[in-house]
Amino acid sequence: MAAHYQIVGSSSAAISASVESGIRSGGLAPGVTLPAVRALATELAVSPATVAKAYQELRQRGLVVTAGRHGTRVRPRPPVATRRAALMPAPLPGARNLSAGQPDSRLLPPLGPHLAALATELGPPSGYAVTAVLPELAAAARERLAADGVPAEEITVTGGALDGIERLLAAHLRPGDAVAVEDPGWANLLDLLAALGLRAIGVPVDDDGPTEPGVRAALTAGARALIVTSRAQNPTGAAVSADRAVALRTLLAGRADLLLIEDDHAAELARVPLHPLAGATPAWAFVRSVSKPYGPDLRLAVLAGDEATVARVAGRARVGAGWVSTVLQRLVLALWRDPGTADLVRRAGESYERRRDGLVDALAARGLVAHGRTGINVWVPVPDETVVVTALRDAGWSVAPGALNRIAAAPGVRITVSPLDAADLAPLADAVARAVRPVGPAPFTA
């Protein structure tokens, strides 16, 4: 633990509040180890049970994680606003940042013309929304989902994919319930599960999606929900294939005790057919975001599902945020209807495909296996994440350590291809090869 921060308190509530304060201020950085229960109890002159209860409260809120003999640590990304971040080494001056996982801003559709057009159409200011979803947006969403084989009689909208998933989990599960998730998987989702007090069960994932034996094992272990990324899986780029979809639908058929959630965050950017699992279980939801194809600031996702599941999500929204802005809904509808925007999104998908496939091929030519079937990321298995991330940083490339994405999966690094041009692929592949297989002792890095 950082020597300059002192945990205080004589009750479990006071101790947990002190730890949270340390996390907010930066005195307890992400990943730092907290004192052992008995050691802190002795220091604070309280019983070990009091400290244990404080740590339990912090775990249930997703602020810390306990890892057996490794002790209790502050989570890499605890769900509390902090004054400074220490999630990964900052890129050196002039380094190329390939760690962000964001789309290429050069390929996003311009919003200005559509916003200008909306300004002339909106009319006088409106009051509180009568319905959560604009009928014309719902109709367009149903048509787009039906074209991909997703039944969409029941629809609502949420403030992005993760917002929809959070509402689904909160409506169906309780703290302590187990959720089956891809491993490696989306770091934000793992953080969300911790914040909700849910227990993540890792499911191995290959290029065709979550493996059937992995899902079966998670169900046997008591998973109450299963979250599957349809395409452009973060971080591996996996996409559920036709054969894998058949196998998973067979396995899940009739599981009344399981909530099935599909995340199609890449949507139109994913240049492979969609093979949905929608309807395989009585309780299911299919979430499609607009952020990756049209812009990260467009916080809207369409959520389809069975009647009861959609009603729960819409009901919880009604007593909270109320609805997703109708101005935002109109903007998304305008983007969907614009043939020019559709062409831009198509070309963006083709560009990501060229860069992603080019990097995977360049790494293969240097004897390295990498994964990136769809999406904007490439996953490279490595023997030691810290060594590779540090070596690449020193060489001018900032990549994301896979530890943020993993539960029990083998180490790896995630490389976002969005900032890359064709001329970057060979130099980057050379740098990755040198980082994975260094010659001689590794240089010292401050």
What report would you give on this structure?
The protein is α/β, with parallel strands linked by helices and 446 residues long. 39% of the residues lie in helices and 15% in strands. It is built from 15 helices and 15 strands. The chain has helices at residues 12-25, 37-44, 48-60, 112-121, 135-147, 161-172, 187-195, 212-220, 242-252, 291-294, 307-318, 326-337, 339-365, 385-394, 425-436, and strands spanning 64-66, 72-74, 96-97, 155-158, 178-183, 199-206, 209-210, 223-229, 259-263, 283-289, 301-305, 377-381, 397-398, 400-401, 412-416. An 8-stranded mixed sheet has the order 4-11-10-9-8-5-6-7, sandwiched between helices. The chain has a 3-stranded antiparallel sheet with strand order 12-15-14, with helices on one face. Strands 1-2 form a two-stranded antiparallel sheet. Helix 1 crosses helix 3, helix 2 crosses helix 3 (48-60) and helix 6 packs across helix 11 (307-318). It is globular. Mean pLDDT is 90; it is low at 84-88 and 442-446.
List the helices and strands and how they pair.
Blueprint: H1 12-25, H2 37-44, H3 48-60, E1 64-66, E2 72-74, E3 96-97, H4 112-121, H5 135-147, E4 155-158, H6 161-172, E5 178-183, H7 187-195, E6 199-206, E7 209-210, H8 212-220, E8 223-229, H9 242-252, E9 259-263, E10 283-289, H10 291-294, E11 301-305, H11 307-318, H12 326-337, H13 339-365, E12 377-381, H14 385-394, E13 397-398, E14 400-401, E15 412-416, H15 425-436
Parallel strand pairs: 3-13, 5-6, 5-8, 8-9, 9-10
Antiparallel strand pairs: 1-2, 4-11, 6-7, 10-11, 12-15, 14-15
Helix pairs in contact: 1-3, 2-3, 6-11, 13-15, 14-15
